[in-house]
Amino acid sequence: xKSIESSVLxxxxxxxxxxxxxxxxxxxxxxxxxxxxxxxxxxxASKNTEGRLTAKEHAEYSTIVHxxxxxxxxxxxxxxxLLAHQK
Length: 87
Known about the structure:
With 87 residues, the chain is an all-alpha fold. The protein is built from 5 helices and no strands. It is elongated and about 50 Å long.
């Protein structure tokens, strides 16, 4: 089941499918956090699970989670573009 956030983001980014070239879609699909950021995310996720985030860390982690949701929806749109161009 989609969250409200992902449903809204899906609607907001719906026009993206019409404007992405296959090359841009591939770049978007392969977008990943660099090693330093991923290490920070992993550390914050662990502290969050343990209930040990400070207020500042919680704000940072919430921002990262939101950004990941945005990127995930954009990547889904990009995958749709690539799938459509395979046909």
